[in-house]
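Reopening this ticket.

The earlier resolution said the output was attached, but the attachment link was broken on my side. Pasting everything inline this time so it's all in one place.
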Amino acid sequence: MAASVTPSRLPSFSCPEYFSNRELSWLDFNQRVLEEAQDPSQPLLERLHFLCIVSSNLDEFFEVRVAGIKQQIESESVDETIDGATPRSGFKAIRERTLRLVDDQSRLWNEELQPGLEKAGIHLPHIAHLPPKDKDWARHYFREEVLPVLTPLAVDSSHPFPHLLNKSHNLIATLHRRQDGGRESHAIVQLPRTLDRLIELPRKEGSDSKERSFLLLGSLIAYFIAELFPGDEVTSVCPFRITRNSDLYIDEEEAENLLHTIEEELRKRNRGNAVRLEVRDDCPPEIEKFLMRSLQLAPEDIYRHSGPINFLHLIPLRGLEEFAHLRDRPWTPIPSVEIDPALSLFDQIRRKDILLHHPYESFAPVVDFVEAAAVDSRVLAIKMTLYRTSGNSPIVAALIRASENGKQVTVLVELKARFDEANNISWARQLEEAGVHVVYGLVGLKTHCKLLHVVRRDEDRIRFYTHLGTGNYHPGTARFYTDLSLFTSRPALTREVATLFNVLTGLCRFEGIQHLLVAPFSLLFQLKEKIHAEIEAARAGKPAKIVAKMNSLVDDELIRLLYEASTAGVKIDLIVRGICCLRPGIPGVSENIRVFSVIGRFLEHSRIFSFANGDGPGKPQIYLGSADWMPRNLRRRIEVVFPILDPALARRIETEILPAYLSDRVKSRELLPDGTHRRRQPEPGKKPTQAQLTFRELARRQQKARQDEKREAKGIRIVPALAPEKPAKPAVKKSVKPSAKAPAKAKKAAAKPAARKAVSRKKR
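Inline output:
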């Protein structure tokens, strides 16, 4: 039994200098994403894609995190974070760091990406520089396709500043009203969300060039905006963008109908207080001041761009088929070699546990599992948690089909999945209409675990079949999120999953279970016990090691315990994609801790935890799950971390997956004691390794080996590829070459053996 947790040891590791600020650590993560856009070895359109991701990440950061800090400032809170920052000092540091990030974005666009796109044949010209024919086309397009949809909104003493949608792209025009004696006023034009943000100019007739030219909708409207105000002189036009507080505030205990309450809150999302104003850097100071007054913002809430104020409008460029050579080669997930599509999936799961590694291995078996359960006459019930899923979800369709087929179907839908609330409400309604029992979880807790449970009457008895994962049941994101998932019929796990569903749907008391680590009931305590087991092993002079992969590490209790483990001699390797408040390499505190961050083509999303003494001295244990080491995951969410009980699968993770991440020298950065990251360099004399590429190559090799096995089973002989031919050794006896004067018949006879050899090689 592991030693009990002793909090009295921890306060010595509470010095603020031992922790990084959560918000600044997140901004550093976004900087690492930007580094991928800055990397000239990346394909050009992939660099543009990473640039757009940076903007999307910043939007959500301001909508939620910065909005919360501004509320703390308004309430005059002086609470300090674990690194000693107050709301005001934290906000100041966030602004300084974000300004650098925004400047880096604009500089990259202006100096590298836009010129690179121009050179490659993707043009984004300014309308003023178009030849007369194209300018006439643009004017006609504006009048026919855009002008009828626009609604100018006057702003003056009789017209208050309009309420503009969150993240909407707007133009503010300054008007000189001739008919009112030259009085100056303003008008707002919001870009309609129904119109494409990129407008392609017609190609030249008869040209076979693959070059494409596009106008930005905002630039098109700005250039012809005077046509909205006949009789007035437009003296200036400035684009701007507002970000609003988008967090939902719901008192679940007071809500009579949670679904209706969330719907009401969603309607308010676009009306939240403004928290950020984005403008072009050429916006006149008087316009900035006018916008600040109207939106009740301060100068420190303004961010100026020397490029587009919304890079997300450029995302469609990545899909241009003529420029596929400027993207990464498409990756098609490989069918798992552990699953035979010709056999029943239930039979295969009953024989052994099956582990899938997405997106290297296909997510299709997960969908197939639900679809098979929906039509299998032996299946009695299906239970599932649904946090996020795709539009037109095949999984939801299968659940509906199962209900229509008379099976007992229960789905726990998380209505509070941030920015997916509307989608989940829609799915919940569709499921309820089909007769599915829809449950919205426990009051005050988000249900974030990934569970799919099937009850089947087999020939011998009723048996449980379960899928547990680290990622969402979303076939779309499964193609570019790295996740692990497990199929099992092992009673030790499936019975506990059944018990957990009873807790979640029946509000039963959680009495504890043996194998699953469940937040908020037992996960935190059990993680502490496992870390303490490593501490005790190290103090006894035994091998002690922790390897943990997650998205974020924020929880101060676990960080302090990891510091204690480090000082006891436990070797700790952490693979943390995003926020990391722990600082490694501090003398006397974290010398035995290394932290790496992998940012690559796929979004690292899997959570893996390895404890050398997880089941006692010398008994390593591997866990997978849905939980990061953050206060919200450990204390305010339903999370499940599950053990890998099959020794072969545990060995695969321990010897194949985790080492690939730890040895990455291409897409990996190492966290330094000062809280900054440094890209890892290849070891001298060794070929640099890249985890995501390693997994792709491994999946290909496994698929090829499986195909070769099938051919051999069918009696098809597999001949290995020929080795490069070596130069022939000189013969002892000289061969007589055909003379140039020899008859044609003799020449043909001499050539026949060589021809036969060439044909033979070609056949093989």
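Reporter confirms the inline version is readable. The chain has 18 helices and 27 strands. The domain at 7-17+517-692 is CATH 3.30.870.10 (Endonuclease; Chain A).
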